[in-house]
Structure formats: structure tokens, C-alpha cells
Design goal:
Strand content: 15-25%
Strand order of the largest sheet: 6-5-4-7-8
Distance between the termini: 37 Å
Number of helices: 9
CATH architecture of the largest domain: 2-Layer Sandwich
Shape: elongated
Number of domains: 2
Radius of gyration: 23 Å
CATH topology of the largest domain: Nucleotidyltransferase, domain 5
Largest sheet: 5 strands, mixed
Length: 310
Amino acid sequence: MINIQSLLNETQCYETVRELRWTNGVQCVSCKSDSISLNGRKANDKNCQKYICKECGKNFDDLTDTVFSGHHLPLKVWILCLYFMGLNVSNLQIAQELNLPESTIYDMATTLREGIVKKAPKVELSGEVEMDEVNIVAGHKGKPDKVKKKKRKGRRNRLKGARGRGTLEKEKPPIFGMIQRDGEVVIQMLPNVKQVTIRPIIESVVEKGSLIYTDEYDIYCRLPQWEYQHKTVCHSKGEYARDEDGDGFHEVHVNTMEGFWSLLRSWLRPHRGISQDKLPCYLDFFQFVHNVRARGKRLLTSLISLLVAS
């Protein structure tokens, strides 16, 4: 396997950060003034440029107020970790690639993932929107005390959960998804799938008057009362797409959202079980990655840009 570390160095990493962070010139991280003077380099990192603001006197550097600041590991290692995360490599494999303890990579990946989720822009949907739900088995990985309280043995046979519709209590939380046709997606873990649970989520994301496609599940029956147009397909009767206007195109379906679930399951599989505590962050990270519509180096550019943005 190629040693990825040989392809990057600290100088290149800092040049990339400066290019993505100071797109309109260096600005003070405190008062946003562009009246800035160079102030030498950091004593313990000669690649990190320091600055001083002429307006407020604030001292800062290339990494101030970013998730990359204040760590003992080089920036190069953090960038490589982020790159591997974008490729959906597990923590164990990243640790092997970077020759670091898995616990260290776990902490780094958590910091990076939470940083992306915190800064990711809010997604708003309109027009034609499909909605669906899926259940993901997620227990209490890494917390054996919680498993003992439930008085169950460790799972085998591919982490099978309780049968039927899932809830947090059953360790099979439902994931609610909304996707705009030819647009972005929003996914969120729920404690249960009820009208009182999904209504505020829908109203905060989907523009009123939008046309919503769902299956026949009765939690969606009040969408017209919530000021949305609503059309359904009846899966229980073997209907998966319907042509209502006779143009030969079966426009009534939720196949886009159902296809997305396959992508989500594939994304979660390398991590071999994610706890309920961490699953929302993994979902939000994948939501951002999917909406960026980029992979590899292009995705890495988007991830770094978001993490270093003011």
C-alpha cells in the first residue's frame, strides 16, 4: 500500500489552510479587520504564521479558532485523518495507515466529525420532496454497563435487532429522511416515528406548499393539514411507482429516498456498529458529504474549507 504520508508535508498543509481560510486576505479573528501585520512564526511550529491586528491588538495564527489548533500532533496528520474519513475508512484502518494508537485516531476523528457537523450549513428543501424512514441497529457500543442493565447478551449474527418498527428503547432507532429531487438530503435519528415527532422537523426543513411523496404509512396523513401537497404509493399492494398524468413517466414514488438508504448502510458498514450516542454525528457527517457531491481530494477541500471558515 502506498505511504500516503510521503505525498504531503507540513508546508503544503499550511499553505492549503491559508489559501482556504484567507480567501479575501487575512482578517482578524476577533474584530474582522483586514489591517493585519505579520508577527513571525510559532516557536514550536515554524510553518505556522502568526499575525497581529492593528485595530484591536489581537494576536492569532493560521489555526486560531479552528479544530486544528492546540494539538501536539502535526497539522499534516490531521489533514490525512480527515482525508481518510472522507474516504470512509474505519478508525482502525486509519490508525494502521498513520501508525498511531486507535484511541488517538478515535479522538481525532470525533473532533473532526463534530467540527464538520457544527459548521455545516442548514439544508432547506422545496419543490418535490420524498420522505421515508429506515431502522438502523444501534446499541451502546463501548458502554457495557448499559448493556448489562438491559440484561441481554452481546449480539451475534450481524447485529440483528428486535423485529418490527424500531425505537431507541429497542436499540433499533428510526432514521427519518427527506430528499429533494435533484437536490440535497436531510437525515435525522428519531426516538420514534410519530406525527408529533416528525412534524417540527418537516416544518423546519421543507418549504410550505412543497409536493411531498411518501409511502402509505399513516404518520404522513396529516401533511395536507400542515400545508403541504401530498401523494403516496401503496407498497403493501405492490405499487412502487405511478404515472398520474399519462406522460409515460412514473413520477409518484419514493425510490430516490429508498436508494439513498442503500448508500447510508454502505457508509456505516465499515464502522462495525455505532452507538446511539455517536450515530447522529455520523449521520450528519454523511449528510454533508453526500450533499457536497464530491469525493477524494475535492471532498477534502470542502471539508478543510468548512473547518477553517470564520
